[in-house]
TrEMBL record:
Skewed-composition ranges (Acidic residues): 146-157
Residue ranges, annotated region (Disordered): 137-173
Annotated compartments: Membrane
Protein's recorded name: Uncharacterized protein
CC per GO annotation: membrane
Amino acid sequence: MWCTRWFLPLLLLPLPTAPPYFLVLFLLSLFIQAKPCFYCIVVLITLFFSSCYWQPFPIDSPLSVPWADNITTFAEALNATLATPYDKPLPPVMSTLDRCWCDFWGNGFFDPYNISQWERASVLRLADEIERERKEELAAQQVASEVEEPESSEPTEVEPMPRTAAPDPTPSARSIRDVAAGMWSVVHPYIQTIRAVAESKIPLFKMDNVTASEPVESLPALRWEYDLRTHGLGLIVDFGWTRSSSA
């Protein structure tokens, strides 16, 4: 890290205002003279890029060049920049635009850096932010006042609608009703017949060898022969039948 001794004083001194082309030639000549190693080059590039960040400072700080006799601080410059007087307290600190040790985007490559223009651009940016916040607050207050304002609208009287007679059924509706009535007149006799048969309790079917007039004998539960024909099965179960013995 001994080769960085040529460049560290550049970071300890205030930022230069020389034209960028002069600073580039100066750094190039130092690199040729010192011949830093790769690690020192990485460290130096990181240190030079870290100079681009500017920490916020108090808004009462003086300007480098006063804008007028009564505008010597950033706070006074901000009050003079605002379109309307700001009734709220100003922010205690402000941030400036980023500026690097060798700035190529300020005033050009061959022109010196303009500090006054940099300060003015920073103040204008802060003024734009304050104006935008003020417009948002006014819009929010206007919306809130419109919501809270009671609506002074008189209730309107609703006139009752006149009652009209129901329209006559259409021809299509009448035809459907006539068809339904005709179908009911055809089906109704069959329904009456089925209902009469069900109420008379007359058996419609007779099983073989069984008549309604014949009394049903009561048989014991345990017997040698079971006749299942009365239950709808053409089967007789006989437990008393035995196979004849062969001679």
